[in-house]
Amino acid sequence: MDREEALDSIRANVENESLIKHMLAAEAIMRALARHFGEDEAEWGLAGLLHDIDVELTDNDMSAHSILGADLARELGASEAVAHAILAHNQRHGASLESRLDKALFCTDPLTGLIVAAALVRPDKKLAGLEASSIEKRFKEKGFAAGANREQMARCIDIGLELDEFIGLGLEAMKKVAAKLGL
Ligand SMILES: [Fe+2]
C-alpha cells in the first residue's frame, strides 16, 4: 500500500477535517521519529496516518476503536507491525506496547493535540513562531488542552527520548506540514 491509497481510504471513512489533520500530524511526527531512530519512515508514517481511521466507523466507541482500525490497515496492505501499533495505541484491548513502533505511536497520539492547542492560543494561530519551550510550559498546565494525556506523552521515555527532545522533534515535524494542518 502506498500513502495515496491510505489517504483515499481515510477520505472514504473520515469526514471530520480536524481528525484528518490529527492523523496527518501524527504521520509527520512518526516519520520524524523513524528518521531519528533509523527506522522505516514510510512504515512508521503509515501507522501515524491510519491510526484513527475507524473513529467515525466505530462511532467513537472506545471499546471498538482500533480493533477495526487495525483490520482496515491490514486490508489496505499494511504490515502486521503497523496493524499491531494501531491496535495497541488504544490500550483498552489488552494489546501490549511491544515494539518501538507501538510505543512511538502511543506517545505521539496525544502530542499533536497539545501542539495544535499551543499554536491556536498564539495571536497568529500559527506553528511557525511557536517554540518548544512554550509547549513544555503548557505541558505542565494541567488545565490546558486537558484532553491531551500528559502521562501518555511522557511515555516517550520508553523509546529513549526525554520529554523536551520529544516535544522539539514533534514540533519541528508538524511545522514542516503546517500548511496541510491549516496552521
Ligand atoms: Fe489519535
Describe the structure.
With 183 residues, this protein is an all-alpha fold. The chain has one domain (3-181): Hypothetical protein af1432 (Orthogonal Bundle), CATH 1.10.3210. The chain is built from 10 helices and no strands. It has helices spanning 3-13, 17-37, 41-50, 67-75, 80-89, 100-120, 132-140, 150-154, 163-176, 178-181. Helix 5 packs across helix 6 and helix 7 (132-140) packs across helix 9. The radius of gyration is 15 Å and the shape is globular. The structure holds fe (ii) ion. Fe (ii) ion is lined by residues 22, 51-52, 109.
Low-confidence stretches: none
Counted up, domains total 1
Radius of gyration: 15 Å
Describe the biggest sheet? Answer: none
Average pLDDT, to the nearest integer? 96
CATH class identity = Mainly Alpha
What fold name stands as the CATH topology? Hypothetical protein af1432
Strand content: under 5%
Number of strands: 0
Compute the number of helices: 10
Taken in chain order, the helices and strands follow as HHHHHHHHHH
- How much helix is in the residues? 55-70%
Identify the CATH architecture: Orthogonal Bundle
Supply the key terms.
183 residues; mainly alpha; Hypothetical protein af1432; 10 helices; binds fe (ii) ion
Give a concise summary:
With 183 residues, the chain is mainly alpha-helical. The protein has a single domain, classed as Hypothetical protein af1432, CATH 1.10.3210.
List the helices and strands and how they pair.
Layout: H1 3-13, H2 17-37, H3 41-50, H4 67-75, H5 80-89, H6 100-120, H7 132-140, H8 150-154, H9 163-176, H10 178-181
Helix pairs in contact: 1-3, 2-3, 2-6, 2-9, 3-5, 4-5, 5-6, 6-9, 7-9
The chain binds fe (ii) ion (FE2).
